[in-house]
């Protein structure tokens, strides 16, 4: 049945507080979507972001809570030292491995939205350094979601927007002053989709969920492989530009993703072997 784009996931880093304040100040109070925000932050203590954003606009702003339902007109901000994920119509917090040197990481939020709500997702990359969010935005676009990027020359730090556009050149691009209108317009679009569980018997649904889990595992592995490939390219680019710090950062990111991919490959292999043993 047709649905609307109603899950907005936003990623930002350096210069992101200013961009988020301006974006939220222009979004309508009756926005027909939930907004989830990852801003790179230190691991300790509490985040002041919810209080800052509450003063900025008319939407309800609160820290993300594990297992809480997503509500239209509400903004949920990631909390320190936890990844924020979309799991259908609820949110989840995870202490999983850092990605791109961060927890919370933008790519984690974006990938989870791509895999669980598909075309309902709107991914938004704002000001920030390096490339967190680029691979995740590519995943959102690949799953039929909408990709939106702050105009790099308009951002305080152009790295994240520029890298996102390099991976998703078809993304909608606009200065921060116009992004609220772009997002509001996208939430009005109708997209295809069928909620899992509708008109399925218990047996058929169980089989479908098993298939969905297997597809999700392979999709996660492909995403990690894409991240590794992108990291290698960015490392080479940094080296060519004489950016030793950037090259080392990308090399560490590749090593981290490679380790995670190896773990996932072993898990998939063991699961396949177990299924073959059961079949015998």
From TrEMBL:
<dbReference type="GO" id="GO:0000156">
    <property type="term" value="F:phosphorelay response regulator activity"/>
</dbReference>
<protein>
    <recommendedName>
        <fullName>protein-glutamate methylesterase</fullName>
        <ecNumber>3.1.1.61</ecNumber>
    </recommendedName>
</protein>
<dbReference type="GO" id="GO:0005737">
    <property type="term" value="C:cytoplasm"/>
</dbReference>
<dbReference type="InterPro" id="IPR011247">
    <property type="entry name" value="Chemotax_prot-Glu_Me-esterase"/>
</dbReference>
<feature type="active site">
    <location>
        <position position="13"/>
    </location>
</feature>
<feature type="active site">
    <location>
        <position position="132"/>
    </location>
</feature>
<dbReference type="Pfam" id="PF01339">
    <property type="entry name" value="CheB_methylest"/>
</dbReference>
<dbReference type="InterPro" id="IPR000673">
    <property type="entry name" value="Sig_transdc_resp-reg_Me-estase"/>
</dbReference>
<feature type="active site">
    <location>
        <position position="40"/>
    </location>
</feature>
<dbReference type="GO" id="GO:0008984">
    <property type="term" value="F:protein-glutamate methylesterase activity"/>
</dbReference>
<feature type="domain" description="CheB-type methylesterase">
    <location>
        <begin position="2"/>
        <end position="185"/>
    </location>
</feature>
<dbReference type="InterPro" id="IPR035909">
    <property type="entry name" value="CheB_C"/>
</dbReference>
<keyword id="KW-0378">Hydrolase</keyword>
<dbReference type="GO" id="GO:0006935">
    <property type="term" value="P:chemotaxis"/>
</dbReference>
<keyword id="KW-0145">Chemotaxis</keyword>
């Amino acid at each position: 049945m047709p649905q609307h784009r109603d899950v907005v996931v936003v990623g930002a880093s350096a210069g992101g507080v200013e961009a988020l304040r301006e974006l939220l100040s222009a979004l309508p109070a009756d926005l027909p979507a939930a907004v989830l925000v990852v801003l790179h932050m230190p691991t300790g203590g509490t985040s002041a972001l919810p209080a800052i954003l509450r003063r900025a606009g008319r939407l309800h702003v609160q820290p993300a809570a594990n297992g809480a339902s997503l509500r239209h007109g509400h903004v949920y901000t990631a909390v320190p030292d936890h990844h924020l994920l979309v799991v259908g119509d609820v949110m989840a917090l995870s202490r999983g491995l850092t990605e791109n040197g961060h927890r919370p990481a933008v790519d984690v939020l974006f990938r989870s939205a791509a895999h669980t709500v598909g075309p309902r997702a709107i991914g938004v990359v704002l000001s920030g350094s390096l490339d967190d969010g680029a691979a995740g935005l590519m995943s959102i676009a690949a799953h039929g979601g909408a990709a939106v990027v702050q105009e790099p020359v308009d951002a305080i730090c152009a790295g994240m927007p520029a890298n996102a556009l390099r991976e998703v050149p078809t993304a909608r691009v606009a200065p921060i002053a116009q992004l609220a209108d772009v997002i509001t317009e996208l939430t009005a679009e109708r997209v295809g989709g069928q909620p899992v569980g509708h008109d399925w018997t218990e047996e058929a649904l169980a089989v479908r969920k098993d298939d969905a889990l297997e597809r999700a595992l392979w999709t996660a592995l492909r995403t990690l492989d894409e991240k590794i490939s992108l990291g290698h390219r960015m490392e080479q680019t940094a080296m060519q530009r004489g950016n030793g710090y950037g090259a080392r950062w990308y090399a560490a990111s590749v090593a981290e993703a490679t380790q995670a991919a190896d773990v996932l490959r072993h898990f998939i292999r063991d699961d396949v072997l177990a299924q073959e043993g059961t079949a015998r």
